[in-house]
Amino acid sequence: MPAINGEQYLARMRKLKPNVWIKGQKITEDMCEHPVYKGALLTKASLYDLQVKPELIDKMTYKSPKTDNRVGLSFLQPKTKEDLEARRHMIKTWAFETSGMMGRTPDYLNTVIMTLTASASILSDQDEQFTQNLINLYERAREQDLSFTHSFINPQINRSVTYEESPTQPIAARIIKKNNDGVYIKGARLLATQGGMTDEIILFPSGGKLNDDEQSFCVSIPSNADGVKFLCRESFWEGDSSFNYPLSSRFHEMDTMLIFDNVFVPWENVYFYHRQDIAMKLFSRSSFTAHTLHQVVIRQITKAEFILGIAQSMVKLLNLSEYQHVHEKISEMIIGLESMKALLDRAELLAAEDEWGTLVPHADSLFVAVNIFPKLYPRMVEILQLLGAGGLVSIPSQEDFESCLFNDLELYYQGTACEAVTKTKILRLVWDLTMSSFGTRQTQYERYFFGDPVRLATKLYNGYPRDDYIDHVNNFLNIKS
């Protein structure tokens, strides 16, 4: 099967029927019609449609080396600068379609699977079959254009480093037994974004304690497997109206807790287990970090561009251009955005081939970018709030404009050189991004997208090469190192 379109994706989701619960009720109707999932499902479908549009298909897909079908370009293992540029264009196209608001578009996990498979031979340290299992997963995902959610965060029961779980009643998901056919998993994982609206789940090793082999396993599971349950957080969907809720009506990604009740996983879907050393080798020696960050930073840049566009629209709308503090705020956004762009360009400029033959973007540059964005994004949100000021507190709705109040609103809610409807649309966009439950989730999501910001800074501190700079200081002072 070649790269799919939107209707094919929706048909698969209708057929899937995963075990999803929200507010104590199991979802029994068509997921594609449920208000909590409908907007995001339709948006994902539009992305799949985009990749097979005649004018875009050559830039969004490539010929499979196995079947000669057109398959999604996010599965491509880049070997050249041209490959890397092609991946960037594809990722940017999807990010632009969602204005960067969906953190788990399919290219994210496609990229992860591609990078790990390129270095799959590491898994032979435990079993040669595990190497082939991962290759089979990659090829199946590529040829069928599968979508994935993933999880690696354990429930937050006790975050002390000395906490030990009961061995008889696991809280964090773990392998509880194995036999000739496969393994059984019991327990929970705290978070899976888009849980219930993907073909499969991938469980990665949790970032737990050192020397914890119990948490070091990697498996894939169909989303509708027996014993798998998705528990949704409270929905941030407010309604279908793109006028009232221009973002949340389309981009609301549900976050779910995963519960595994003796879930059977056949050996062909196991990639390693109870081997922290293999987990560390796989994720440190592969191009996982660099290529995943490459996808993330492209999306973050696209989101920052969108927010800058909103901010400048507000300046024009409210005639704020004469104020120097506004110049300073907009310039602050520009500086952040251009810094991110420069780091992305540098990462691609300094890309180098790794031991697996993959062309890998410069990881240090990308690490700097993802250390910047968790601070940049909340500040950009704050600037939008400051520009909107009291105007964001009371905004008319679509229903108001469709009522007998229309003439009053046209007169009293007009903006500078624009009618009241245009002004309202822009302010409702700002409200949905910065003040709604959807918007506050976006801020928290970006703060912790690639992990705890403090730990990200520590990774940068430990990994960034500085010896040449120290040597220069020593030579300058004639100090023997």
- Total helices: the number is 17
Shape: globular
Q: SS-based structural class? A: alpha+beta
Strand fraction equals 5-15%
Describe the main β-sheet briefly: 6 strands, mixed
Number of DSSP-assigned strands: 14
Question: Could you name the ranges where pLDDT drops below 50 across 5 or more consecutive residues?
Answer: none
Provide mean pLDDT, rounded. Answer: 94
Oligomeric state: single chain
Overall radius of gyration: 24 Å
Helix content: 40-55%
Compute the separation of the termini in Å.
61 Å
Q: Which strand order spans the largest sheet, edge to edge or round the barrel? A: 2-1-10-11-7-6
List keywords for this structure.
48% helix, 17 helices, globular, 481 residues, alpha+beta, 6-stranded mixed β-sheet
Describe this structure in words.
With 481 residues, the protein is α+β, with helices and mostly antiparallel strands. It is built from 17 helices and 14 strands. The chain has a 6-stranded mixed beta sheet, with no helix packed on it. Strands 5-8-9-12 form a 4-stranded mixed beta sheet. Strand 13 and strand 14 (359-360) form a beta hairpin. Helix 1 packs antiparallel against helix 2, helix 5 packs antiparallel against helix 9 (288-318) and helix 14 (420-434) packs across helix 15 (437-447). The radius of gyration is 24 Å and the shape is globular. It starts with 5 loop residues before the first helix and ends in a 5-residue tail after the last helix. The model has no long low-confidence stretch (mean pLDDT 94).
